[in-house]
TrEMBL record, chains A, B:
Taxon lineage: Bacteria, Pseudomonadati, Bacteroidota, Cytophagia, Cytophagales
Domain GLAA-B beta-barrel: 136-264, 373-441
Chemical reaction(s) catalysed: Hydrolysis of terminal, non-reducing alpha-D-galactose residues in alpha-D-galactosides, including galactose oligosaccharides, galactomannans and galactolipids; Hydrolysis of terminal, non-reducing branched (1->3)-alpha-D-galactosidic residues, producing free D-galactose
Matches recorded under InterPro entries: Beta-barrel_GLAA-B_I, Beta-barrel_GLAA-B_II, Beta_helix, Glyco_hydro_28, Pectin_lyas_fold, Pectin_lyase_fold/virulence
GO biological process, one term: carbohydrate metabolic process
Entry keywords, A to Z: Glycosidase, Hydrolase, Repeat, Signal
Name of the protein: Right-handed parallel beta-helix repeat-containing protein
Lineage: superkingdom: Bacteria
Species in which this protein is naturally found: Flammeovirga agarivorans
Keyword rRNA-binding: no
């Protein structure tokens, strides 16, 4: 006879706090709640849509997916996933989640906070972590130089299994294989110096046997990088063996052996490995994040889409315990936001992608379906389901291989999402005949003003700040120590369909501390587009009163830029790392005009100051 | 400059047929429509919810997913998937889809007809097929006996790639690896005789290296067969090589080499390979299927859930062209249906699973959440999202290891689906204290009366008819030629959580033509439960006036049965196939009582007529 284990204790909890509209839900740290807070919190959230907030007695709360609310979510730059939620903040107004210093530990594929269609939502005083990470880490403990193999020790917190030469790390409700890898320096708690020499580990190779595959025809354009189609033509090249319990030998490595004592981070296949971001905000006005720490997420720390007025103060993205890695993708990421994005006094470190990325989204014209109606297509599989704007927004039409400036603008009347790739937009005006298949559209209304001030960006893979907005932006008094460029102004049109040509940007008073240490030959600040044309993408960029500590030469790379001022900056030579590219100049200009360099204090190593192409004109270098 | 290719022709089509409520949408076979009918049909369906039907000018229409309506669907006994739809029949009343003899060719992951929440819907005069099948077929052309390998030739319609020793068949928007296999006899166009000797091909083996995996703990019960967890502990054992273009050598085969000239069918991994059933009906009353042919589906042909009164006449499930395989799972399947299921004059052949399966669903008690409230859990990952009933239904509570008969019954007040595995049911009455964690619940109200008459069931993998309903059922004048048992009455509680103990069944006037030729030692008619107990599962079963053509001995296996009559049947000896189990008796009885055999004409081979255990009592064998 089985045991009676009915949860009457929960019943007591459930009935103990009947909340009235306008009041704040109080959560006590009873064992019944802290051991799995999901069902209690979920019930409270769903039953009290009029509440003004939820407050937790300070403590550690676990959240399991088993009794969480299922929601399917299209998430930009993530895998579109089903997640089980404890906090489905959908349609809330003036609502505050206050952890009062609590720690929330999540288990498996959950999104800690999912905020949709809301107004004036705050999250504060809470720390987010996962019991088991979505990535894994191991220490390089030996080289076997004759056979060019190396040994990695994985600790008890990273259980694994080897299947047919690949390694699979087993988590709660999740697993990942080797996939994307990078090397961390344990002492510096940052990506290893010149890491590009050692990683990533090549996991796949061309498959050699195919038969008749060119007979698979598609009527419409397909995305060859989509999760099914990308597999065609490749196979695994991994050959891993366990040489002692917890110690795995990596054969067949194409690059230099990673230094002994460094840490290998692995997170599984690109496209499959972003399944549980920390906080996701969508279609929400006035979102505040204050005194929040995110130790980990299986994806980005904070992802905001199609929202307005975002205020972030004292956010920490930083690993817990001995982990090298915090979040497995960008610390923060903003798509199609408007109004204001303000981030201050924050520390974003050690995550596996950029610190801040702010941009719009291009979509592609497929066909005209009426005088005012267009069929459009999402270009990238991680943009699936993304809706480009709302009624009244101004859509710009761009011929991306000719110019980044819209050749025409129309107003959205309505958008119908037919499927994850295909939508139909009805405009208020007639569609001009210049619009043809393959043109890009961008939402001119959906770009934000930006202030990033007094933040620290360090230790992560990839860039510091990526900015793509034509609105006013200020990057002031921040500290950067990034393995790639510190500030990158891109137009990532070709691969990522990320829109936004930046103008009116002030970069002032920042310290760039030996960035680009990962091994790429790039400027600390870099303005570069994906496209080959010479048209202007960036306009009115001022870089002044910054300090550049430089172990290498290249300070600034700018292309397709008009009105660039580089003034009163101090460039110092540093011996923090050995120099990598002594032949580089300090500044590279391409297809740019009206550039001024003045009153800079240059103490750098570069012997050649400036390199520019013949399409660059009117440079005043003092 | 890119080409202007706007679809003004479509505009004309779109505006040509404005339909009034109550009228029938007419679809003409213009090139703009037939080349991809999806956007046109979808628009018509969505804009004419009051229409009484849609009629197609006779022709061949292609349906692509690219512009189809995305819908996520939980599908019983399938992978839960996103599909793109042309026919989202949701909330329709008195609606008829009439192909007027047309053929609809689908491309990729679509469900041709998805019917939800509707009343009185008919589909008629239409043939469904896919351009590229979700399975693949190849002919065995050589044996290499020394190394125990065999060679398979795959035709041009099955493009493939070999990756790391496994074969991947590349389709439109889809691929599958070897996975589940079976052998067909090309001449007989059916599963090969004694196929169990040759297939399936073993694709996986135990992985040998694990480290620390027992440290991954779960707070709640988990389903080890779920798509993530099942991977732990296994790896591929395949070692396939192309020996000539289109010819692949299979090494490492554990069974006998499949005969030269037979056809290997492969469809990818179990759990992953059912993504596009032909017709799916859910929560609908009065559904009619008349003169419909389904040549193929990536899953079941027709799947009906939680619906009432289903009428099927002249349905054909049969492969097109040279294909051996029709649908890649059951021809027809009914879960939680009520009212009447009537299937007449139909041909169900060559699909990769049962012809007809009618059952309910068990779910498991997790915890009590209030006097009238239970948390319950779906047992099987392919039952995820299934809702067991609606307000007013009677739920029976079963202690499955003791008895199949409910020990108590309650009435549903409401059901809340929290996530795909966990739901909360509120009852009208208080929950009795006998209910404990681990008890099963079944919906007593959701069983149908059944009539299967004048149908032909042949050539498929697995069983003919599976019946699990306590309501009146008649199986009359059908022809069976199935490789496993022709009629199976199960209680598949342990693995599949399929409920329903059958009573009041008449099996009359059928011809059982040499069934069980696939190699299993089973009765042509078989009444067997998953559980080890001796309680009665089946009651009032009459088998009379049937003809059994028998190449082997075993006619009937019955366990846990009360009131079984086997009368006026003719058992003939056949030399259609060599005998497999000469030691078997003709009849096996276990844990049964009140069994009558009389007036049968036995001309079979069996030398031993009857085998029964000591818990079987009151058998009258004349």
């Amino acid at each position: 006879m089985k045991k009676l284990i009915f949860i009457f204790s929960l019943l007591v909890s459930f009935s103990g706090f009947c909340d009235k509209p306008g009041e704040v839900i109080q959560v006590k740290k009873t064992a019944a709640i802290t051991e799995d807070a999901t069902p209690y919190v979920l019930k409270k959230i769903l039953e009290n849509k009029e509440a003004k907030g939820i407050k937790f007695e300070k403590g550690t709360y676990h959240f399991y997916p088993d009794k969480g609310l299922t929601k399917f979510v299209y998430i930009s730059n993530h895998k579109d996933v089903f997640v089980n939620l404890a906090f489905p903040i959908d349609g809330f107004k003036d609502f505050t989640i206050d952890g009062q210093g609590s720690t929330f530990i999540f288990h498996g594929k959950m999104i800690p906070f999912l905020v949709d269609n809301s107004e004036n939502v705050s999250i504060k005083n809470v720390t987010i972590d996962w019991a088991m990470a979505f990535h894994s880490e191991g220490e390089i403990i030996a080289h076997n130089t004759e056979e060019h193999s190396f040994d990695v020790r994985f600790g008890d917190e990273y259980p694994y299994e080897i299947r047919n030469g690949d390694i699979y790390f087993i988590k709660e409700y999740y697993e990942h294989d080797l996939g994307q890898t990078i090397i961390y320096d344990k002492q510096r708690r940052a990506i290893a110096y010149n890491d590009k020499k050692f990683s990533p580990i090549a996991t796949s190779q061309k498959s050699t046997v195919q038969h008749g595959i060119d007979q698979v025809k598609y009527k419409y354009k397909v995305d060859k990088s989509d999760l099914t189609l990308r597999k065609v033509g490749t196979e695994s090249r991994l050959n891993l063996k366990q040489v002692a319990p917890g110690v795995v030998r990596f054969y067949n490595h194409k690059k230099q052996l990673p230094p002994i004592g460094t840490i290998l981070s692995t997170k599984g296949q690109q496209g499959e490995n972003r399944v549980a971001p920390g906080i996701r905000v969508n279609n929400t006005n006035n979102f505040h994040l204050t005194d929040v720490t995110i130790h980990h997420a299986g994806g980005m720390g904070l992802l905001v889409e199609n929202s307005e007025d975002i205020y972030i103060d004292r956010l920490k993205i930083t690993p817990s315990g001995d982990r090298m890695v915090s979040t497995t993708a960008d610390a923060t990421h903003f798509v199609g936001c408007r109004g204001f994005i303000k981030m201050t006094n924050s520390l974003l470190e050690n995550q596996l992608d950029d610190c801040v990325n702010i941009h719009g989204a291009y979509q592609e014209v497929v066909e005209q379906l009426g005088e005012k109606k267009l069929g459009i297509r999402m270009g990238h599989h991680q943009q699936e389901g993304y809706v480009i704007g709302k009624k009244g927004d101004t859509i710009g039409f761009v011929k991306i291989d000719e110019s980044f400036t819209p050749f025409d603008k129309l107003t959205i009347e309505s958008i119908e999402r037919v499927n994850q790739r295909y939508q139909v937009i009805t405009f208020k005006e007639k569609i001009p005949k210049e619009v043809v298949q393959g043109d890009y559209i961008e939402n001119i209304s959906a770009y934000p003003e930006v202030l990033l001030e007094n933040n620290k960006f360090q230790g992560n893979r990839a860039r510091g700040v990526l900015l793509s907005t034509p609105k006013k932006a200020i990057v002031r008094n921040n500290y950067f120590h990034s393995e790639m460029e510190a500030i990158f102004l891109p137009v990532e049109s070709s691969k990522w369909y990320e829109s936004g040509a930046t103008s009116n940007l002030l970069i002032e008073g920042n310290t760039f501390d030996n960035c680009n240490f990962g091994g790429t030959s790039r400027g600390i600040i870099r303005l570069v587009t994906d496209e080959d044309n010479e048209s202007i993408a960036f306009n009115d960029i001022t870089i002044r009163k910054n300090i550049f500590k430089m172990f290498d030469n290249l300070v600034l790379e700018a292309s397709n830029t008009d009105e660039l001022k580089f003034e009163e900056n101090t460039i110092l030579s540093s011996d923090r790392f050995p120099q990598l590219y002594p032949e580089n100049p300090a500044f590279i200009l391409r297809s740019s005009k009206n550039v001024t360099f003045k009153n800079n204090d240059f103490q750098g190593k570069a012997t050649k100051m400036m390199e520019s192409d013949k399409s660059t004109i009117n440079v005043d270098f003092q």
